[in-house]
Design brief:
The protein is α/β, with parallel strands linked by helices. The protein has five helices and nine strands, in the order βββαβαβββαβαβα. The chain has helices at 67-78, 100-108, 159-162, 180-193, 203-207; strands at 3-12, 22-28, 62-64, 86-90, 112-117, 129-132, 144-152, 166-174, 197-199. Strands 3-1-2-4-5-6-7-8-9 form a nine-stranded mixed β-sheet.
């Protein structure tokens, strides 16, 4: 299998329960809910994505023919030391490419493997952390994991229904959009009204990290 990687870089996790953790971000190209082209956004199943996942031209990106080769790139970015190694695999939609071979190669290098997915494809076995971010109008099949991150507001999603899914943490994140202040107010209101939900912000954007 050839892995198409948009970008791969060392940073701090900016969102969710693991926010602030040193991590290598591995962003796969491609998504099953949007082509990534602006001309297709209006008709996409997910039309509010704030991420460029098209192609392989980002920092650390490229095509990798073997899992061991890609895992070596991740390890090289982390540098010396094996303590608290964390790789966050995202996209696009990572489950289009992530496989057992890559998870095993990363584990062999001492990494905890986290994934951020839209949940429309089943998660690969062996992951250490699963974050699902559901999108309205899609069929979410991955209804268990560590972290459910709801980008809010979204018409067509009922937070009360999501509370029945099997996750350890329920997070609500304001949508990054032109109506940003209204989105923040809506996310705060949801967390106040339904105490199972915790507010999470995109801290990396606040401090200028990628």
């Amino acid at each position: 299998m050839t892995y198409a990687v948009k970008e791969c870089f060392l940073t701090l996790q900016g969102e969710g329960v693991q926010a602030g953790s040193r991590a290598v971000f591995l962003r796969f190209s491609g998504c099953n809910l949007w082509s990534g082209r602006e001309q297709d956004r209006a008709g996409a199943q997910c039309n509010f994505c704030d991420t460029d996942f098209v192609g392989t031209d980002g920092a650390g990106g490229g095509k990798f023919s073997k899992a061991d080769e890609l895992a070596g790139r991740v390890e090289g970015l982390w540098g010396a030391g094996r303590d608290q190694r964390l790789v966050v695999i995202t996209g696009g939609e990572p489950m289009l490419q992530l496989d057992q071979a890559l998870i095993e190669a990363l584990h062999a290098r001492g990494f905890r493997v986290a994934v951020e997915t839209n949940g429309t494809l089943p998660a690969v076995q062996g992951l250490d952390w699963i974050c699902v971010s559901p999108k309205a109008g899609t069929d979410v099949v991955q209804r268990e994991g560590d972290e459910l991150k709801l980008v809010w507001p979204q018409e067509g999603i009922d937070p009360a229904e999501l509370e029945g899914w099997d996750f350890d943490h329920f997070l609500v994140q304001p949508m990054d959009c032109e109506e940003g202040e209204a989105a923040r107010d809506a996310a705060v209101a949801l967390a106040m009204e339904r105490p199972k939900w915790r507010l999470t912000l995109q801290a990396h954007k606040v401090i200028g990290l990628p």
